[in-house]
């Protein structure tokens, strides 16, 4: 049987299509580590997408993450699924890092929220610890980014993403109306198991 250019091209397209489908049906190594022991409604494809958005690489021992060019400074990353606006669509908070990636804070926070096109968009992505308000404001609750300094940054939802609102001096009154992101996520993940 003689193969024409068209037959070879069609075979190539089928191969690519099958390979892409296989990738969508299985978690990448990075996504597997990132979502290890996490209860979530996200599809395999969404988990792979989140991992790709982080730009993390697997560390040399494949037990941690690192950034390209910073392989000598591996770090842990923790995923916290949430449903901050109670619409049935998950948001994903990730706390990660070390002093190399995040300076004096020791960790950084990212919050992925789906937009109207069903794409995850990153909010934050800088040093600090995410705390979520116990009351909603304009669909999504306010977020407080706690850092080792004497100030904390308050962020408010603007209808598309989170905008910086103001700096607050830290005291016990501020923290009374916020919960750690992992507390919110623990409640949410338990609700998925029912």
Describe this structure in words.
The protein is α+β, with helices and mostly antiparallel strands and 194 residues long. It has one domain. Helices cover 30% and strands 34% of the residues. The chain contains 6 helices and 11 strands. It has helices at residues 5-25, 29-34, 44-54, 99-102, 172-175, 181-192; strands at residues 57-58, 65-66, 76-82, 91-97, 108-114, 120-127, 129-136, 141-146, 151-157, 162-169, 178-180. The strands form 3 sheets. It has a 5-stranded antiparallel β-sheet. A 4-stranded antiparallel β-sheet has the order 3-4-5-6. A hairpin with an 8-residue loop joins β3 (76-82) and β4 (91-97). It is globular.
Itemize the secondary structure elements and their pairings.
Elements: H1 5-25, H2 29-34, H3 44-54, E1 57-58, E2 65-66, E3 76-82, E4 91-97, H4 99-102, E5 108-114, E6 120-127, E7 129-136, E8 141-146, E9 151-157, E10 162-169, H5 172-175, E11 178-180, H6 181-192
Antiparallel strand pairs: 1-2, 3-4, 4-5, 5-6, 7-8, 7-11, 8-9, 9-10
Features:
11 strands; 30% helix; four-stranded antiparallel sheet; alpha+beta; five-stranded antiparallel sheet
Number of helical stretches of at least 4 residues = 6
> Percent of residues in helical segments?
25-40%
- Over the alpha carbons, how many angstroms does the gyration radius reach? 20 Å
Strand order of the largest sheet: 10-9-8-7-11
Per DSSP, what share of the residues sits in E-state strands of 2 or more residues? 25-35%
How do the helices and strands follow one another from N- to C-terminus? Answer: HHHEEEEHEEEEEEHEH
- Whole-number average pLDDT? 88
The major β-sheet equals: 5 strands, antiparallel
How many strands in all? 11
